[in-house]
Amino acid sequence: MVPANNYLALAAFLFGLGLAGVLVKRNMLVVFMCIELMLNAANLTFLAFARQSGNLNGHAIAFFVMAVAAAEAAVGLAIVIAVFRTRGTLNVDEVRTLKN
Amino acid sequence: MSDRAELVVFWIFAVPLIVSAIGVLTARNPVNAAMSLVVAFFFLAGIYVLLAAHLIAFLQVLVYAGAIMVLFLFVIMLLTTADDQFQRARFKLMQGFGIAGAAGVAAVVVTAVRDLGPMPMRMVGAEFGTLKAVGRLLFTTYVLPFEATSLLLLVAIVGAVVVAKQRI
């Protein structure tokens, strides 16, 4: 059996990549994709612990995470469209009305 | 499956997963990033099968690689902008801090996982993670959150239409 540590380390690495993308990328859509990557890393952690403890509750949580991710993608992309319509840009650095 | 074969299969899925996840970050074109993400989701589904999460692996391909990424591609198609929009800005100091911070978070968690010591997997029955087993759990213990999910999705649909539509 592959120990759970491998899966958890993989999930941590994936989460780190997603976090780096959220912090570094400027394209709003790519930032959203990186958020999906982080959600998937969380799912992988849930499933690894579910398998490690032989408990199915982790699978139910992963299912709900997926539903929340779908809702988040729908609303988030709608916001991206609305921002693009009013500002004409997808660059997160140029959307800063609240800064001053 | 023997231990060694399982470890080999794990790496067969894990290495392309990491490579395609890095591809999401390095791609200049958002379409390329989306395609890399689809590939990453497929390999992640393979990892889920290795974890005996058959239903979640199935949903991963169907919901993530299918529905959500098609939504992303539609929005990319709608909002095609000039490619040079993002190439103007140079590499900034804050981005270096961002990468360093993310690498720090990942390093801390990986170290913590390593310090836990080996956590062997428990033996599970053949029914573990199947549609039958997870479905029974969803419709008994988690029936209230399950129904709340339908409400959440309804609110998300209405919210998306209200936010994105110019005039209702």
What is this entry, summarized?
The complex is a heterodimer of chains A (100) and B (168). Chain A has 100 residues and is mostly helical.
Question: What do you see in this structure?
Answer:
The complex is a heterodimer of chains A (100) and B (168). Helices cover 78% and strands 0% of the residues of chain A. By secondary structure, chain A is mainly α. Chain A has one domain (4-90): Orthogonal Bundle (Helix Hairpins), CATH 1.10.287. With 168 residues, chain B is mainly alpha-helical. Chain B folds into two domains: 3-129, NADH-ubiquinone/plastoquinone oxidoreductase chain 6, subunit NuoJ (Four Helix Bundle (Hemerythrin (Met), subunit A)), CATH 1.20.120.1200; 130-168. Helices cover 74% and strands 0% of the residues of chain B. The mean pLDDT of chain B is 88. Classes of the chains: A mainly alpha (100), B mainly alpha (168). The interface between A and B is large, with 71 and 86 residues.
The pLDDT mean of chain B sits at 88
Q: What structural class do the secondary elements of chain B suggest? A: mainly alpha
- Give helix and strand order of chain A, one letter per element, not per position: HHH
Low-pLDDT residue intervals, each spanning 5 or more residues of chain A: none
Helix content of chain B: over 70%
Strand segment tally of chain B: 0
Morphology call of chain B? globular
Global Rg of chain B:
20 Å
CATH class of chain A: Mainly Alpha
Total discrete domains of chain B: 2
CATH homology-level superfamily of the largest domain in chain B: NADH-ubiquinone/plastoquinone oxidoreductase chain 6, subunit NuoJ
In the CATH hierarchy, the third-tier topology of chain A is known as Helix Hairpins
- Please state the CA-atom Rg of chain A, rounded to the nearest Å: 17 Å
Number of strands of chain A: 0
Percent range of helical residues of chain A: over 70%
CATH architecture classification of chain A? Orthogonal Bundle
> In percent terms, what proportion of residues of chain A is strand?
under 5%
> Could you describe the largest sheet of chain B, including whether it forms a barrel?
none
Largest interface: A-B, 71 and 86 residues
Distance between the termini of chain A: 55 Å
